[in-house]
Amino acid sequence: MPAEERQARIDAWEWLLRAAKDRHVAEREWEPIGGRALLKAGEVFDVLRVTYRALGVRLPDPVGGRRVPVPRLDLLGRLAELGLTGMVYRTDYRPYLCFLVPPGTDQTWPKLPLLRDQVECMGGSYADVHLVGVPSPNSVEGPHLHWAEPFGPDGPAAWLSDPGRLHEVLLERLEAAI
Fold first, then answer.
1. Out of 41-45, 78-82, 123-127, which region has the weakest mean confidence (pLDDT)?
2. Alpha-carbon torsion (30, 33, 36, 41), positive or negative
3. Minimal CB count within 10 Å: which of 43, 135, 145, 175?
4. What are the two backbone dihedrals, phi and then psi, of residue 68, each rounded to the nearest 5 degrees?
5. Phi and psi (nearest 5°) for 119?
6. pLDDT tens, 30-78?
7. What is the spatial distance between Cα 18 and Cα 5, in angstroms, rounded to a whole number?
8. How many Cα atoms sit within 13 Å of 119 on the Cβ side?
9. DSSP secondary structure string, 87-110?
């Protein structure tokens, strides 16, 4: 692994752990590749969970009655087409993506009409606390919970997705479907 990529993962590890109630517990939860730590949304980041359908990501046809995961390059290509950036994680078993967005996004995230498309913003602005399963920065391949691509060297400003752009894209997709 190149030194720049290794440093980006170390930086991401430290940054994500700022959302852990107990750093040591979170690190143990990340130990097996595919592990996930329960981190508190709302302090370092919020999480915007968006279905593939809402983004216009086509699911591959099942093979032998079993769901086939969306190939990583197809998914990254679709996000690039839509002009969406930032860190995204997923699992091959569920048809949705989780975008890291700035903390406090849940206070302003529009709820309707996007609820129809199963778009949810989880943060810490309300009485309920959202603990979200987040993969280790080292988990970059499925089928378990993993990042769609490795963390880049540009730090948290580049790792967080723009919630305004996400909202714009989702509304455009919704309007196109009507």
1. 123-127
2. positive
3. 175
4. -105, 135
5. -110, 125
6. 987 778 999 999 999 999 999 998 898 988 888 888 888 889 899 999 9
7. 20
8. 23
9. -EEE-TTSSEEEEEE-TTHHHH--
Residue 42: left (phi > 0), alpha (psi -120 to 50), or beta?
A: left
Predicted pLDDT at 178: 59
pLDDT tens digits for range 102-116: 999 998 887 677 776
CA distances from residue 96 to 11, 75, 89 in whole angstroms, order as listed? 26, 11, 9
Backbone phi and psi for residue 101, each to the nearest 5 degrees, phi listed first? -125, 165
Phi, psi of 111 (to 5 degrees): -90, -40
Q: How far is 134 from 101, CA to CA, in rounded Å? A: 13
In the numeric block, which tokens belong to residue 63? 């093979």
Q: Which helix (H) or strand (E) holds 147?
A: strand 146-147
Q: pTM of the predicted model, to two decimals? A: 0.92
Q: At 69, give phi and psi (nearest 5°).
A: -65, 150
**Distance between CA atoms of 6 and 153, rounded to whole angstroms?**
9
